[in-house]
Amino acid sequence: MDSNGHSVAQKVPLPLDLAWGFGLAALLCLATGWLASPPALFYVLAAALYLGVCGLVTRYWPEARDFGWANRATLLRACLVIVLVALAPFAGQLTDSLWLYGWMALLALILDGVDGKVARATGSQSDFGARFDMELDALFILGLSIAVLTLGKAGIWVLALGLIRYAFVAASYILSWLNAPLPDSFRRKTVCVWQIVTLLVAVLPPVNTLFASTTLATALALLVWSFVTDIHWLYQRRHHHDVQ
Questions:
Q1: Is residue 143 a contact partner of residue 202, using CB atoms and an 8 Å limit?
Q2: 229-235 CB contacts, 8 Å cutoff, 24+ apart
C-alpha cells in the first residue's frame, strides 16, 4: 500500500523473469530432444542463444521497472524461437519430425501478435518492447532461412532473408543517420509476416524445391524493396538527424 492507501504492484526482479524463461526453454529443449532426437550440439546452441538474449535484456532493460506482462509474453515466444533456431541446422535430420518443426514455427508465428495485444491492454507499450519483438522476429527469420537451406529447398541465397536485417544494423554503426526512428509501416509488417509464412511453408515435407524457391525469391524481392524504401526515407532526412 502507498501513502494514499492504494495498492502498489510488486516489482518482480528481472533475474526471476529470466530464470523462468530459462526453465521453459530447457523444458522445450528436452521435449524436442525426446521427440526429434537432435544431436548434442542442439542443446549447446539453445543455451548459447538464451544466454545471449539474457545478456541483451539485462543490458537494455531499466532495472527500476517491472519487466511487464507484454515483455513476458515476448520472452515466452523467445523460448520457442530459440529452440527452433537451435534446431534449424539439423532440420535435414528430422525426417518424420519435420512436421513437428512446422507446427512449432506456426505456434511461434501465432504468438507474435500476443505481446502487442497484452501491451495495449495493460498500457505497457515501450520502445524496448517493440525492439525486443522486432529482434526476435529477425532471429526467427534467420533460423527458418537456415532450416530451408539445410533441407535443400533453396540455395544459399535464401540466407539473405535472415541476414539483411543484421546488415542494416551493422551499417547503422557506420552511417549514423540509419539510426533515426522509422514511422510505423503496414508495408513493413506485411513483408515481415510474408517472409515468415513463405519460409514456414517451405520447410514442410510436401513442398517441392521449385515452389519453395519461387515463393522465397518473391519474399526476398519484397524485403529488398522494403529496405530500400526505408533507407531512402532515412537518407532524405539525414541532415535533420545530424542536427539533432
A1: no
A2: 229/187, 230/182, 230/185, 230/188, 231/168, 231/178, 233/182, 234/177, 234/178, 234/180, 234/182, 235/177
Return the C-alpha torsion angle 104, 194, 46, 126, nearest 10: -110
Q: Which of 15, 14, 19, 84 is nearest to 46 (CA)?
A: 84
Burial of 69 (0-12, 13-18, 19+ CB in 10 A): middle
What grid cell was written down for 194? 510474408
| pLDDT above 50 for 64 | yes
90 vs 32: CA distance, rounded Å: 12
Q: Distance of CA 76 to CAs 26, 33, 184, 213, Å? A: 12, 19, 24, 31
DSSP 193-239: HHHHHHHHHHHSTT--HHHHHHHHHHHHHHHHHHHHHHHHHHHHTHH
C-alpha torsion 231→233→236→242, nearest 10: -70
**pLDDT digit string (tens) for 172-197?**
999 999 999 888 889 998 999 999 99
Q: Who contacts 119 (Cβ-Cβ below 8 Å, separation ≥6)?
A: 68, 70, 125, 126, 129
Q: Are 90 and 146 in contact (CB under 8 A)?
A: no
pTM for the whole structure:
0.90
C-alpha cell belonging to residue 213: 524457391
What sign has the CA pseudo-torsion 126, 70, 53, 55? positive
Q: Name the CATH topology of 14-243.
A: Four Helix Bundle (Hemerythrin (Met), subunit A) (1.20.120)
